[in-house]
Amino acid sequence: MIVEQIWTGNSGRNFNYLIACSETGEALAVDPLDHEKCLARAKARGWTITQILNTHHHRDHTGGNRQVMAATHAPVLAHANAKDQIPEMTRGLRAGDVIKVGKTVELECLDTPGHTMSHICLRSHTDQPALFCGDTLFNAGAGNCHNGGHPQELYGTFANQLAKLPENTLIYPGHDYIVNNLRFTLDREPDNAKAKEMLPGMERQDTNHPLVTTLALEREINTFFRLSSPSVIRRLREAFPDLSDTPDPKTVFLKLRELRNKW
Ligand SMILES: [Zn+2]
Ligand SMILES: [Zn+2]
Fold it and tell me: 140 alpha carbon to ligand 1 midpoint, in Å?
């Protein structure tokens, strides 16, 4: 499995992806908003885009579908329940479905509600596993729930699915928000040494060659995975004085999501 992470350079800071089979050169385009860059990159690598996947229906993920379809005749895959919002969709996906790319790539679909209620993440079962997580999980952060999502569902996705993936899973999100997210982590957990150490390097990072984190690193720097950290809870009780001193993880997650909305 070969992954090309494509920096769009747009104001939304979107990442698009090509996932290719090393034997056949067939490729899956994930959220190819910047259709020109995606088509050019495929051409430069000698690949043929044979499928398009939308992690969810938001326009900054589906906005390049028609152009990539016109150029490649590739079908569009998305969550089965996103059919009304993505009319060009031809294959509806459910949890456990497998997407094959060429001869060597198999990607498992995870049904990951929260950012929207019809959001798919893709998981590879390669030696080093990978997760293409759209707007559900970001480097050092979590998706918002403003446009058709629910924070409670997002918590369920984090706790019941994402947190259970292998520690060495590579994280490929739909946007580059790492700098702002690390700042939020440090606001919530000022003694987070790892986040503090990483921030200056991330402020200077070349987004054409971004850091790819792992789930293990996310557990260190992503406040939405640090729900039992004593400093996170202590700081949260400053913002929410009614909070108990031993809040359950779900309550911590929901309060953090609420604070992040205004960050
Ligand atoms: Zn979105
Ligand atoms: Zn997005």
Answer: 17
Phi-psi region of 102 (alpha: psi -120 to 50; beta: other; left: phi over 0): left
Q: Is the pTM of this model over 0.90?
A: yes
| Catalytic site includes residue 97 | no
Catalytic residue among 35, 57, 115, 119: 115
**Active-site residue, from 31, 60, 111, 176:** 60
Number of other CB atoms surrounding residue 225 within 10 Å: 21
Q: Would you place residue 86 in the very low, low, confident or very high pLDDT band (cuts 50, 70, 90)? A: very high
CA 189 to chain centre: 23
Q: Catalytic: 35?
A: no
pLDDT of residue 135: 98
pLDDT at 115: 98
Asked if 146 is an active-site residue, the reply is no
Q: Are 97 and 131 in contact (CB under 8 A)?
A: no
Closest ligand (CA of 174): 2
List all residues 6 or more positions away from 230 whose beta carbon is below 8 Å from its beta carbon. Answer: none
